[in-house]
Amino acid sequence: MGTHVVSALSAAGHEPYVFDIQEPRYGTFIRGDLTRLDDLVAATADMDAVCHLGAVGDVYLAVCRREACRPHLSCCGRAKSRL
User: Fold this and answer.
1) Residues 6+ apart with CB under 8 A from 60
2) Under DSSP, is residue 23 helix (H, G, I), strand (E, B) or coil?
3) Quick check: helix, strand or coil at residue 29?
4) pTM score, two decimals?
5) Please, what's the largest Cα pairwise distance for the chain?
6) Is residue 78 within 8 Å of 41, Cβ to Cβ?
7) Which H/E stretch holds residue 4?
């Protein structure tokens, strides 16, 4: 799913970054752990927006249960990023 999001954002003229524990085959990579708030704060410090796909294995859940993801990215408010 992340590959498609990175591709669509790039095609729209954005500069997407991939935040993960393991380096992906696509996108500009930032190594970090989604469960570590310090990693999230550091990774989102200069970001304009965040598209949270961490641990989302179902597109339906990603869209319909968006509010369930908000606590994991409390750092976005600190970094003034949009979710």
Assistant:
1) none
2) coil
3) strand
4) 0.64
5) 30
6) yes
7) helix 2-11
How many CB atoms within 10 Å of residue 43?
21
Contact 18, 27 (CB under 8 A): yes
Residues 6+ apart with CB under 8 A from 20: 29, 30, 31, 32
The pLDDT mean for the chain works out to 75
| Euclidean distance between CA atoms 62 and 39, whole angstroms | 22
Among all chains, which residue has been given the structure tokens 């799913």?
1
| Structure confidence at residue 62 as a pLDDT band (50, 70, 90) | low
Find the angle CA(32)-CA(80)-CA(65) to the nearest 5 degrees.
70
Distance CA 36, CA 48 (A): 20
Sequence letter at residue 72: H
Is residue 19 within 8 Å of 30, Cβ to Cβ? yes
Residue carrying structure tokens 């003034």: 80
